[in-house]
């Protein structure tokens, strides 16, 4: 049975961005993971999308981090947009988008 092709359309500031949905093979769904490289040094990973949230990790230039699919940025405080990241503890953290480079999803 052929796998269905799906896409997610994200609207941001009047611009639409399409991303392929996680791949599906028969009864198994494989979720894509978003990959980023930290570009600042040091970079605070926060509990929420904003500078008012507490720092839960500190990363350094070149560190590789991942986040959940879909790979979108979140509005936080008025100053920055934020990427949602996986934490080793099983929760999520956030990094300002100007401090991490998006490398794609797979």
Automatic annotation (TrEMBL):
Keywords: Signal. It comes from the Bacteria. Residues 1-20 form the signal peptide. This is SH3b domain-containing protein. The lineage of its organism: Bacteria, Bacillati, Actinomycetota, Actinomycetes, Pseudonocardiales.
